[in-house]
Amino acid sequence: MNQDPTQPIEPFLKGLVSSLDLNNKAYPNVEAYATQFARQLKPSSGVVLNGNPIVSNNSKLEFQKNWLSSPLTSHQIGNFDCHLIPGTGTVLINVTGKVRFDESGNSRLNESADLIQTSITDQKKPVWGSWFGFYLHLVVDETVLTNSDSELINNFDYRITYKPKDSVVEI
Amino acid sequence: MSYRGRGRGGFYNNNRGNFNQNQGQGPNTNNVPTSQNINQFISGNSIPVEILGWNGASMEDCVKFISRKCRIVVSNASIDPQSGAMKGYVKSQKDADDLCNWSGVKFAGQSLKITKAIGAGATTTAVGSSTIETITAFLKSRYSPEMKLLNLTAVQADPTLQSKGFFATISTTSKFFPALMKVAHELKIEVDSIDLSGNNLTDLSTISTLSTTFPTLKNLSLSNNAISRLKVFETWRHKLNLLRELIITGNPILNQANPQEIKAELMKSFPRLIVVNGEVLRNEAMLNSILAFPYPNPQQMFFQDEEIQGMSTNFVTSFFGLWDSNRRDLIQLYQAESQFSLSVDMSHPHMLEVANVDFGYYLPFSRNLTKISASKSRMSKVCIGPDQIFKAFTQLPKSKHELVTKPDMFSMETYRFPQVNGIIINLHGTFGETAPPENLEAFNNAAHRNRFQNNRNKKPPLSNKSFDRSFVVIPGPNGSMILASDSLVIRSPSGCDSWSKQSKLPTPPPAQPQQQQQKLPQTPPPNGPSALPMVTQLPPDVKAMLNAAQQEILIKVSLETNLNLQYGLMLCQQSNWDYQQCIINFKNSVGSLPRDAYAS
Questions:
Q1: Nearest-5° angle of CA B303, CA B308, CA B310?
Q2: What dotted CATH number matches B127-291?
Q3: Where is the NTF2 domain (chain B) (predicted)?
Q4: Chain A nearest-CA residue for B419
Q5: Per DSSP, what are the bridge partners of residue B481?
Q6: Taking a C-beta distance cutoff of 8 angstroms, is the pair B124, B117 a contact?
Q7: What is the pLDDT of residues B543-581, one digit of tens each?
């Protein structure tokens, strides 16, 4: 190997993680919005969130539905590493970093549980809470090295590894 | 004391000083000194001393004399009316011992007899330790463990506290609540609800520490105080994150600010606030679902199937057994194409109590690809084959993973990796470093390169670290295993709150045995015509807390709502003993009351 093949991994990860943090502003409807989350998942991907597996024929769709119901997130990648496993056509990637949640009480779809109209809260700006730590382990097809936009994730294992004491959001 | 004041204010101050002083010497001695004991409590516990033979001059002169002569400050001096002894406090045991050595020193024509007052009997120490004792007794009298309610209504009207002089001056008054919170914190009492009504509070500055003592507080009443500005709630912004209900009736703010503005501000300050003054501001069920991660029940362990459960737990246990004791024995698991790399995530969030974790031993190996862009380094930092891998292992600190003794510290996900007919194991947790690495080659090289940074010979201190480790395990012939890939992330300790069961929101209190409270003398059958509870049937301890009108309201409310005594009492207290308000509040929160809130 003369050339480092891992260069395209970083843009792929950045794209993947930032898709999880999208807000719904630019999308005409819920479907168009939700299908942006982790587009590179396969319908048959093994998805595990905090030790809970998604059990479904279409785990990608199920994951996107679930993610839609989480509070708005903001991720920052602090570290990643990867191994190409010879003869398998796959790359294993582990990512760690921090994530924080919107504590304003508004959902990703800008729904609010408020029963009264308050002119001040009309501005639906996120109120970011303290940072959590996360770990993400991915098994992806080697095609990630050439085209990172296709469905290529075989396994998606996401774990919150640190929870701040003052968190409003329950995990 | 002269009238050397600064203008008129000085005159006033001095006059007040004299007034206090006179009181201190008068027959009702304890007032002022005791109130000052709050100061003393805040600054730490002091050692009481007793001084006889001071009567040749005034008490103040004697204190000044001791300060001058012995260089020891006696504070909060007072005179015991019975023995005539002067009592005061010194900062430390050493000061007390030193002072006792001065016993016999001449002062105003007499010899001072100085002794430590510790253990000299209750009357002697009463003045000093009584501050904490008084507050503790007060707290206990106002705390209801069944309801987890701390009733702090009108504390300044409390006769015991008043008689002890807790509110004698502005300074001691302002210190009362911090002292109260400190004692409450030390008592470790569980509190869901606090009633602070009728305390003449103008802002939250004196009670600001409430949010650190009781961060999980759910119900708070501040009714009938003097709060007039909306800004005061900023003190607690995002600090009482579980506060569900707030009562601020009877405060001037309600007449001064726009009601919508008040609600908006309160909702902003308290993210889980549902009810204010009996009005429901948020849809609680919806809020709970919005403020939750999609899977709000983290599972510590995930195994794709039973077969890999057995395989992976065995593997992990024996792997880390050897990793901690003899890494050389692990080398047989790695083959020519096996890969190992480690990466350090220095910016990973971690427990606040941990500071300055040193990654010096790991950094020379770190393959954190967000930091390394050069192809050559990226490639050279993966160890391939058993020789390279073992060499790296010997250069990492020795460690202890308490997988067997403290399994709660770890979490794990395992799933099949069909491409190699193997499994992937991702393990997270914390380990302790027990000794520096055997081989310091990489560390010394890195230190050498950084020699101008002055840390050349400094060895990183050992500490706990958290880690994530991912293995690709391929079962080989005859039960052997091959580790195709091994990657390790090192980060600062992050604890196990994110997967432990205790991290859940506090659930409604479990159905508690109703103890004596419900064992009324003649328990009437429920709902029958004879079920009408009578005032006489209230348990004596409850009766003792309430006046006649309150007892009647409690009975009326219990009849109307069918709540049990515990919840009925809570409702009455939160509604300021206003029957109509009780009924309104009951209707508002009826949906969220647990089943055992009702009388059976």
A1: 100
A2: 3.80.10.10
A3: 311-490
A4: A88
A5: B475
A6: yes
A7: 777 777 788 888 888 877 888 888 888 888 877 788 777
Residues constituting chain B? 600
Confidence bin at A123 (pLDDT 50/70/90): low
How far does B184 lie from chain A, in Å, by closest CA? 20
Tokens of A50: 């905090």
Q: Which residue has the tokens 């549980």?
A: A113
Q: Does domain B44-116 have CATH number 3.30.70.330?
A: yes
CB contact under 8 A, A161 and B494: yes
pLDDT at site B511:
37
Q: Where are the alpha helices (DSSP H) in B326-472?
A: 375-380, 386-393, 441-449
Strands B334-344 and B481-491 turn out to be parallel
pLDDT reported for residue B78: 78
Find chain A residues with C-beta within 8 A of B346's C-beta: 78
Question: Chain A contact for B344, CB < 8 A?
Answer: yes
Which residue of B263, B291, B499 is the best one to mutate when testing the A interface, meaning the one whose CB has the most A CBs within 10 A?
A: B291
Fold category of B540-590 in CATH: Helicase, Ruva Protein; domain 3 (1.10.8)
The interface predicted TM-score of the complex, written ipTM, equals 0.95
Q: CA geometry: angle at B35 spanning B32 and B38, to 5°?
A: 150
Ranges of residues in chain B with a pLDDT under 70 are 1-46, 81-82, 118-129, 450-457, 501-537, 600
Q: Residues 6 or more apart from B22 whose CB is under 8 A from it?
A: none
DSSP A3-22: S-TTTTHHHHHHHHHHHHT-
At residue B378, the 3 state secondary structure works out as helix
The structural domains of chain B, with segments of one domain joined by +, span 44-116, 127-291, 308-451+460-491, 540-590
Please, which residues 14-43 of chain A have a Cβ atom closer than 8 Å to chain B? none
- Count the Cβ atoms, other than its own, within 10 Å of residue B261: 13
B429 close to B411: Cβ distance less than 8 angstroms:
yes
Helices within chain A (DSSP H only): 9-20, 30-34, 59-68
Can you list the domains of chain A with their CATH numbers?
8-162 (3.10.450.50)
Establish if B343 touches chain A: CB-CB under 8 angstroms: yes
CATH class for the region spanning B308-451+460-491: alpha beta
